[in-house]
Specification:
This protein has three domains: 3-312, ANL, N-terminal domain (Rossmann fold), CATH 3.40.50.12780; 334-409, Luciferase, Domain 3 (Luciferase, domain 3, Roll), CATH 2.30.38; 413-510, ANL, C-terminal domain (GMP Synthetase, Chain A, domain 3, 2-Layer Sandwich). The protein is 28% helix and 29% strand. It contains 15 helices and 28 strands. The strands form seven sheets. Strands 16, 17, 18, 19, 21, 22 and 23 form a seven-stranded antiparallel beta sheet that branches. A six-stranded mixed beta sheet has the order 11-10-12-13-14-15, with helices on one face. Strands 4-3-5-6-7 form a five-stranded mixed beta sheet, sandwiched between helices. Helix 5 (175-183) crosses helix 6. The structure holds ligand 8PZ. Ligand 8PZ binds at residues 159, 203-204, 207, 275-278, 298-303, 306-307, 326, 392, 394, 406, 409.
Length: 512
């Protein structure tokens, strides 16, 4: 099944139902029906074909999540054109790195987009409710293809590769197997209004589009300038009668801190889905106090398969709960743990690296076979089979019933004075300090090159000031000596990346 076929499967039968409800430039909520969305998508598909684009071409879609952007990515899917979503706030140089790597035929932005100086010979165009206006025509490409096949590339997501050169995650239409596994969780129905809060360049937004449209429900994009202000954000959710909010944990930090009553009073909200990193337990407890009937789903996974598992957060959270479970893989996929020697790890409590068996695995990193071979590895259970699995780089252990608990990234294991430390364990211990709402711990080199743990702690507004000795004394009670951070920095908030995750590089830079 191709991406657009999955997306249209439910909505085609209900052309008059709202597919997207969004904020117009004049601040009203405007609705785009499934029928109107299909019309727009057809218009775009014809315009792309007229511009000479076809199967295997690549285009950059620079946009926020809007009805027109959704129509455009569905048109690309139908034409077999690979789309590369990029957010408008992407710096010019980063966009340049992406276009130098991916060599797209065309860059498309909204009518009011401000991007200029796209390097030749990339074509440029604008897309909107009027259709597509080509400014600089793309180079025609003679691709001898007739039929889009499932293994063709649907989209590419460029992640900020740690080496600075962005890595292009190549995803084929087989991502629809993941989408079908997600719908089997039955999280959303046709009457739901699913708020999406991630930038289009983060595949969390693509999950949201699939969740809403695939369920015949309504997608409600939350503009950034609304999301960043808790009163506006919560007011918007109420006004749009949102029933389900998808987002990374950090979107709830300010509402929990500054507008708890408004959050508690949202009348239509029944479900929250988060992904990307742990939800700090103090904030989760607070959310459950304020909204005891709201379902919270922990969605785990990597862009290389879009995601992998959906697990309800226990409500209420047990007092002694140390970490959230990520459950097991969605229907149609499997997750196994292996140790460094490639042996299967099954004992409850024993840590291994998550390997994902899935039909929705990415094709590879664009133009980077070495990195691809490190991630798509022979099935450790049956290396000769030719089957590959995703080596996630994530460590986990199982509970008594076989459910998985995310422990941390393989590279977030540090050795300090010869002792192996899981950074996440130190973070969770500090989260228990009265008044802490969130924390990030980094292993930073000291002057003598020795690694030392540095904790960045965010107190609740009414928690008064924290003293380092008090924090250190608290850690000494619960952590082995070598796990106690040697430095504590109290912050009013943790910096986040453009995708909303804790920005550890920014924290490290603070101490430089
Ligand atoms: C996590 C979790 C989690 C990821 N708890 N650590 C999109 C849509 C829905 C779910 C997941 C996605 C991912 N594509 C989002 C994402 O963060 N992708 S990523 O490739 O940028 O990072 C993946 C890594 O984030 C994972 O390998 C984990 O280390 C971490 N992660 N979800 C804790 N629920």
């Amino acid at each position: 099944m191709l991406l657009h076929e999955f997306m249209w499967a439910r909505g085609r039968a209900t052309p008059d139902r709202p597919a997207v409800v969004e904020l117009s430039e004049t601040g009203e909520l405007v609705s785009t029906s499934y029928g109107r969305l299909a019309e727009l998508s057809d218009t775009y598909a014809s315009a792309l074909a007229e511009a000479g684009l076809g199967i295997g071409d690549r285009v950059v879609i620079e946009s926020d999540t809007t009805a027109t952007a959704v129509a455009l990515l569905l048109a690309c899917s139908r034409q077999g054109i690979t789309f590369i979503p990029v957010s408008p706030e992407t710096p010019d140089q980063r966009l340049r790195n992406i276009t130098d790597a991916a060599r797209p035929a065309l860059h498309l932005q909204a009518p009011r987009g401000v991007r200029t100086n796209l390097a030749e010979p990339i074509g440029t165009a604008r897309f909107g409710t009027h259709g597509i206006t080509v400014e600089r025509p793309p180079l025609p490409s003679a691709r001898p293809r007739r039929e889009v096949v499932e293994t063709d590339t649907a989209y590419m997501i460029f992640t900020s590769g740690t080496t600075g050169r962005p890595k292009g995650v190549v995803m084929s239409h087989r991502v629809t197997a993941f989408y079908r596994g997600m719908l089997a969780e039955g999280m959303v129905g046709t009457d739901d209004r699913v708020a999406t809060t991630s930038p289009l360049q983060f595949d969390f937004s693509l999950l949201d589009i699939g969740l809403a449209l695939g369920s015949g429900a309504t997608l409600v994009p939350v503009p950034r300038q609304v999301l960043y202000f808790p009163r506006r954000f919560l007011g918007f959710l109420e006004a749009a009668r949102v029933t389900h909010v998808d987002g990374v944990p950090s979107i709830w930090r300010a509402p929990l801190r500054h507008e708890p009553e408004l959050l508690a009073s949202l009348s239509a909200l029944s479900g929250i889905l988060f992904c990307g990193e742990d939800f700090p337990l103090p904030e989760l407890r607070r959310m459950q106090e304020l909204r005891p009937d709201t379902r919270v789903i922990n969605c785990y996974g990597a862009t290389e398969s879009m995601a992998a598992s959906f697990e309800d957060v226990p409500n209420p959270l047990p007092e002694d709960l140390q970490r959230l479970s990520i459950g097991n893989a969605h229907r149609g996929a499997d997750m196994l743990l292996f140790d460094e020697k490639g042996a299967l790890v099954t004992e409850p409590g024993a840590v291994g690296e998550i390997h994902l068996y899935s039909p929705s695995l990415f094709t590879g990193y664009f133009d980077d076979p070495e990195a691809t071979a490190r991630a798509l590895v022979p099935d450790p259970l049956d290396p000769a089979s030719g089957r590959t699995v995703l080596r996630t780089g994530d460590l986990a252990h199982r509970g008594e019933k076989g459910e998985l608990y995310f422990v941390g990234r393989r590279d977030s294991q540090v050795q300090i004075r010869g002792n192996r430390i899981e950074i996440g364990e130190v973070e969770r211990a500090i989260e228990e300090f009265p008044g802490v709402t969130s924390v990030a711990v980094l292993a930073l080199p000291r002057a003598d090159e020795e690694l030392a743990l540095h904790a960045f702690v965010v107190p609740a507004p009414d928690a008064g000031t924290f003293s380092e000795p008090a924090l250190a004394a608290f850690c000494k009670k619960t952590l082995n000596p070598y796990m106690v951070p040697s430095r504590f920095t109290v912050l009013t908030r943790l910096p986040v990346t453009s995708n909303g995750k804790t920005d550890r590089r920014a924290l490290a830079a603070q101490t430089a």
